[in-house]
Amino acid sequence: MAQFKEVSQKSKLHPKPEGLTLQYGTAGFRTHAKHLDHIMFRMGLLATLRSKKTKSTIGVMVTASHNPEEDNGVKLIDPMGEMVTALWEGYATQLANAEQDSLLKELKDIIEKEDINMSEPASVYVGKDTRPSSASLSQAVLDGVSSLGGKTHDYGLVTTPQLHYMVCCCNTHGCYGSPTIEGYYQKLSQAFLQLTQNALNRTDDQKRLLVDGANGIGALKMREMEPFLRSEMQVVLSNDGSSGKLNHMCGADYVKVQQNAPQGMNMGVGERCCSFDGDADRIVYYYTDSKGCFHLLDGDKIATLISTYLKELLLLFRHMFQFMLKLVTVCCTKTGVKHLHHAAQEYDIGVYFEANGHGTVLFSKAAQKQIQDLVKDPNSNDERKRAVKLLESTINLINQTVGDAISDMLVIEAVLAIRGMSAQDWDAIYTDLPNRQLKVTVSDRRVIDTTDAERRAVSPEGLQDTIDSLVKKYKSARSFVRPSGTEDVVRVYAEADTQESADSLAHEVSLAVY
Ligand code: 16G
Ligand code: ZN
Asked: Which residues place a Cβ less than 5 A from the ion ligand 2?
């Protein structure tokens, strides 16, 4: 077929280095940028097939998030803005690793297995982060799509969650918002301004927020968005990409792992600060106290802040809702956004955050409908009317497709303003036990297998028993090990009553793994 002739010709311009194999991991393909040109072309092909199969627009984001600047990566986005399914992750790996002369065979194999009608039209949205390699790599994606006759829309430089938003807007025919960068800023800023109207007497100090842009796309987009916020937020941006290197000594991952401030940020005592990661789908907050002590407000703290705020609002309607009977349940999953997202979808309102700062809130269709009905309820008193408006604006402010640093930041700022809380008040909701994360390099990390949402090791034999006996030596202690999904290492986590104990337990467990 003529269609495949073009694939065959163009794929020669994006040749696969012989013998190189890569896997579609927790967050797509990710490695040094120099190994990725053929992967990008092929992900363009796969996105086109996925689009034909789902009769929807599919997204392809070129980014390696918090990885070093030299790396890059690619992720596919499904019609409602979610991660692509496990079955298609498998196809991605299959296509990526086909040697040059069997590419067409593998492509046709997927078409056959999925019974794809090749005469369906295809539409693919493409976005990229600010890495030097992203421009040519996203061009390779576009080449892949067009060689199969698909239509592309190149959004250029966008954050990962912005592209998820565009895909969802397109496939819901505008119900979620308008699929433009301006539409995104408008939707979020309107909701934010409506929420902050409920925070009386906000001072300029309370509007001030120090933002570390990780020298990446988030910084660029924050600048673009600022005018839409009409001085209701005073963003002091550092690591804005004008001089420093992406994610180098800055960004959410650096701050979370180092438990320290990023370079280049001048923090006053008690001042609220936050860091985005390299593609702005994660955020962590922090401040220093009067003794100069650094306090991290990570994903767990963010989840607590948002869920207690929602709970307070919903309690006003407890006489009306069945789902209020069991107000808050906690659920743990394996690491990785797709696992958390799917678990959160099981609830009327699902608040999920990874400790590293990736997360969002999902509202079921039924919950959204009930909230909309309440807006029109003539019997509502003033307090309830206000609460319903707050819920409605909160839903609009949240990017329900995926964790979004900009959207999460605005939600957090609005909640703090409405509740009149400082960073210290927020921190005091609960106290974290001292903890330590380490990584251990082993010859084969896959020998470690886990269960119970990665909290217990089932292999190698005896490892969990050793961990259990080490944990018993310390007070209030826990420790977990799991193979990383993104690096060739094993992650070790330990917590205990003091920092010394946490450090020592983490060290002992590392030795048991090694
Ligand atoms: C990826 C995941 C993130 C997870 C991290 C764990 C997505 C979009 N991102 O960055 O959720 O926390 O991997 O990496 O799924 P690790 O297994 O190396 O610790
Ligand atoms: Zn990221």
From this structure: 65, 277, 279, 281
- From the options 3.40.50.2300, 3.20.20.60, 3.40.50.620, 3.30.310.50, give the CATH code of 435-513: 3.30.310.50
b/e sequence 138-149, b meaning 16+ C-beta within 10 Å: bbbbbbbbbbbb
Check whether 179 is labelled as a binding-site residue: no
Residues in a beta bridge with 360: 352
The candidate with the shortest Cα–Cα distance to 309, out of 408, 165, 433, 235, is: 408
Residue 139's pLDDT band (cuts 50, 70, 90)? very high
pLDDT score for 165: 97
The predicted structure's pLDDT at residue 488: 84
Looking at residue 389, its amino acid is K
Q: What is the 105 CA–ligand 2 centroid distance (Å)?
A: 34
ipTM: 0.96
pLDDT of residue 2: 63
354 is in an annotated binding site: yes
Length in residues, the chain: 514
Backbone angles phi, psi at 202, to 5 degrees: -70, 125
Instruction: Report how far ligand 2's centroid is from the alpha carbon of 324 (Å).
Output: 33
Return the CATH superfamily for domain 2-157.
Alpha-D-Glucose-1,6-Bisphosphate, subunit A, domain 3 (3.40.120.10)
- Nearest ligand, CA 340: 1
Cα–ligand 2 centroid distance for 501 (angstroms)? 31
φ/ψ of residue 97, rounded to 5: -100, 0
Q: Which position has the token pair 């019997």?
A: 379
**How far apart (Å, rounded) are the C-alpha atoms in residues 492 and 460?**
15
Nearest ligand to the CA atom of 439: 1
Q: 65 an active-site residue? A: yes
Counting from 1 in the atom list of ligand 1, the atom nearest the Cα of 356 is: 12
- For ligand 1, pick from 29, 67, 279, 337 the residue to mutate: most ligand atoms within 8 Å of CB: 337
CATH classification for the domain delimited by 183-297, as one of 3.60.10.10, 3.40.50.2000, 3.30.70.1170, 3.40.120.10: 3.40.120.10
Residues in Cβ contact with 313 at an 8 Å cutoff, skipping those fewer than 6 apart: 387, 390, 391
Q: Is residue 155 classed as helix, strand or coil in its secondary structure?
A: strand
Which letter, b or e, does each residue of 270-306 get, where b requires 16 or more Cβ atoms within 10 Å of its Cβ? ebbbbbbbbbbbbbbbbbbeeeeeebbbbbbbbbbbb
DSSP per residue, 441-468: --S-GGG-EEETTTTEEEESTTHHHHHH
Q: Which of 65, 138, 189, 238 is catalytic?
A: 65
Atom 2 (ligand 1) nearest CA: 336
Rg (CA), the chain: 23
pLDDT for the residue numbered 326: 61
Strand partners, 219: none
Residue 485 alpha carbon to ligand 1 centre in Å: 7
**486 among the known binding-site residues?**
yes
